[in-house]
Design goal:
Blueprint: H1 2-10, H2 14-25, H3 30-37, H4 45-83, H5 101-115, E1 119-120, E2 126-128, H6 129-132, E3 157-159, H7 165-173, E4 178-187, E5 198-209, H8 215-230, E6 235-242, E7 245-254, E8 271-280, H9 282-287, E9 293-301, H10 302-310, H11 323-326
Parallel strand pairs: 1-4
Antiparallel strand pairs: 2-3, 4-5, 5-9, 6-7, 7-8, 8-9
Helix pairs in contact: 2-4, 5-10
Bound molecules: 3,4-dihydroxyphenylalanine (DAH).
């Protein structure tokens, strides 16, 4: 018995262990021989010896199972060692990743508004007519719907043309006060140097008690934000029209390419339009059942910001995944 325990312990590999197992448990193995001897014993001795033999059998089983686990682990370890890769090895293809300029710009926008205590809200890309248009004071057949070249599905569903529907969804979900931005993809049937069918917007909405929110508040935060994004620029608020705000304005910054002197990018005007904004139209509050409140809203295009910040001439290049462009942002 001792002799076999030693043999098991010293087995070098699974093959050797299997030979030992057969020598012990096989038809002609040592256990079989011992059990055969039982016949020759007296009726008194038989049960005692048989019991002992069974214990030995169990013991051998355990020892072999344990040894097998050990050897199998050794085989696996050796296999893993073979496959090990040396991560410190020099590689000529050492391409570092970088954030896509649109993501990087979006991160900077979000960072500003989060620091100003705005929450982040999201909404579905497939919207319904009510949220994308109707509740935003854009009734059916209103001419202003033409401003947005919409992709339609069946049964009044559409790809949202702006992030403004998230204003509606947020107000439907939460009681005032509201202080949120909503970044996300939007879709329009448009494709040229400055338009792609999918692009990103950031919407902003702030609502509080009636009389507590003024256009001056809106001007303050947007001007501060634009300085955060573009540094030292002049800013002007130009009267404009959006169905969901009244009064409405478009915001321009002095051209960052020619410093306001007039160039091709700013069409010789010295100004670049970067934002739409205004005081939330009472009809919008009515659509969501808000009473006795006032608020401001704004919306901007993330790709437009990225193009201006990084001086990218063609919007479409942001979506081509061309490494020659992306490598410049490492
Ligand atoms: N939704 C507008 C667009 O896509 C952008 C916009 C303008 C959003 C003014 C606003 C706003 O919230 O007040 O062109």
């Amino acid at each position: 018995m001792e002799e076999w325990i030693k043999k098991i312990a010293e087995a070098l590999d699974l093959e050797e262990l299997e030979k030992i197992r057969i020598a012990i448990f096989g038809k002609k193995g040592i256990l079989a021989k011992e059990f055969a001897k039982l016949k020759t014993l007296s009726n008194e001795e038989k049960p005692k010896v048989a019991k002992e033999l069974n214990e030995v059998k169990i013991k051998f089983n355990e020892l072999i199972a344990k040894k097998r686990d050990e050897l199998e682990k050794k085989v696996l370890d050796e296999e893993l060692k073979k496959d090990e890769i040396d991560v410190s090895l020099f590689s000529p293809y050492n391409n570092k990743g970088a954030l896509h300029p649109v993501q990087d710009t979006l991160d900077r926008i979000i960072e500003y508004f989060v620091s100003m205590n705005f929450s982040i809200e999201t909404g579905p890309l497939v919207e319904d007519d009510f949220h994308n248009f109707e509740a935003l004071n854009l009734p059916k057949y209103h001419p202003a719907r033409d401003m947005q070249d919409t992709f339609y599905f069946k049964d009044e569903k559409l790809l949202r043309t702006h992030t403004s529907p998230v204003q509606i969804r947020t107000m439907q979900k939460h009681k005032p006060p509201i202080r949120m931005i909503s970044p996300g993809a939007v879709f329009r049937r448009d494709f040229d140097l400055t338009h792609t069918p999918m692009f990103h917007q950031v919407e902003g909405l702030l609502v509080d008690k009636k009389g507590e929110v003024s256009f001056a508040n809106l001007k303050y935060i947007l001007s501060d934000f634009l300085h955060h994004m573009f540094g030292e620029v002049d800013i002007r608020y130009r009267p404009s029209f959006f169905p969901f705000t009244e009064p409405s304005a478009e915001v321009d910054i002095s051209c960052i390419f020619c410093k306001g002197k007039g160039c091709r990018v700013c069409s010789q005007t010295g100004w670049l339009e970067v934002l739409g904004c205004g005081m939330v139209d009472p009809n919008v509050f009515e659509a969501v059942g808000y009473k006795e409140v006032s608020g401001y809203a704004f919306g901007l295009g993330v790709e437009r910001f990225a193009m201006l910040i990084h001086k990218i001439p063609d919007l479409r290049s942001l979506f081509e995944g061309d490494l020659r462009l992306l490598e410049q942002f490492r």
